[in-house]
Amino acid sequence: MITLVKDIKEANGITHNGTMHADEVFATAFLSLYFGNFKVIRVSEVPIDISPNTLVYDIGKGKFDHHQSDARVRDNGIKYSSFGLLFEEFGIDFLKKMKLKNTKAIYNYFVKDFIEGIDAIDNGIFPDVKANYKVKTVSDIIKIYNPSYLSNDSEDEQFIKAVNLAESILTEELKNVVGKVEAASKVKKLLNKTKGPLLILDEYLPYEETVLTSLAGKNIKFVIYPSNRGGYGIKTVPISTTDKTSRVYFPKSWGGLFNSDLEEVTGIKGSLFCHTNRFLMTASTLDTAKKLAEIALDVNEKE
């Protein structure tokens, strides 16, 4: 739980006041989850006579600040923010306290999947997004908690709201990462047993990143899995983690069709649905799903 205090002697942590950013908000949320009952004071300048046990972050040019000229940079060129610095210091212990397996793998995945993006944006490195609509990152979402023009919102109250949101996001992100790390191990084993272009899962697993980053996944064209709506899903595989163009597509004549209309054009009973953009199909049985994928592969080879 996070508590904002006014007396610096009561504080476990010190960060800056004024405009809030994702790095110190998520840093505060992480420290709250790690320590349990974390008391923070927001200041414009760090006093000289503070307790050596008080964590100072995103201000003061100390160990957990990144505004000084010699601030730390990762080997991949992404500069740390206060969030990344604090997670590097306490992250492994935090995960061990949660009694998680594969602690190091979870730590590394969490840093890559979530923390590096927040660190990069806070240091002025923004994602190159090509879209004809506005894309908001988690850093953008945190920004909207700053008091808006002409509002009477309290800066500190808005900060608490943002930290509470960040705690929730961190908790869900961590659960997601734990699941992905566990799933990756299973997907790798299946890939090593798979000879052809179809990867067949006997349960739904988050598979895409493992397929796209594994040498054994380079020839996979479709993934078939049990659907949570019943039956089976058949999904195309993107070219890479950055290029979401499918390696192959379902035939053009299938796109947007359902049930009997789709069965007629495919010639396969149990064909349920083909997405308009031809990257996803559903089928009533595993056998039907395999037949549809095989037909799609054959059509792609002939085109």
Layout of helices and strands:
Blueprint: E1 2-4, E2 13-16, H1 22-35, E3 38-43, E4 55-56, H2 82-97, H3 103-122, H4 138-143, H5 155-193, E5 198-200, H6 208-213, E6 222-226, E7 232-236, H7 259-266, E8 271-274, E9 280-283, H8 286-302
Helix pairs in contact: 1-2, 1-5, 2-3, 3-5
Q: Report the oligomer.
A: single chain
The averaged pLDDT comes out at 95
Percentage of residues in helical conformation: 40-55%
Give the amount of beta strand, in percent. Answer: 5-15%
- What is the H-and-E element order? EEHEEHHHHEHEEHEEH
The number of strands is 9
Low-confidence stretches: none
- Biggest sheet: strands, sense, closure? 5 strands, mixed
- The separation of the N and C termini measures 59 Å
Instruction: Strand order, main sheet: write it out.
Output: 5-6-7-9-8
Structural class: alpha/beta
How many helices?
8
Radius of gyration from the CA trace? 24 Å
Query: Which overall shape is indicated by the principal axes computed on the Cα atoms?
Result: elongated
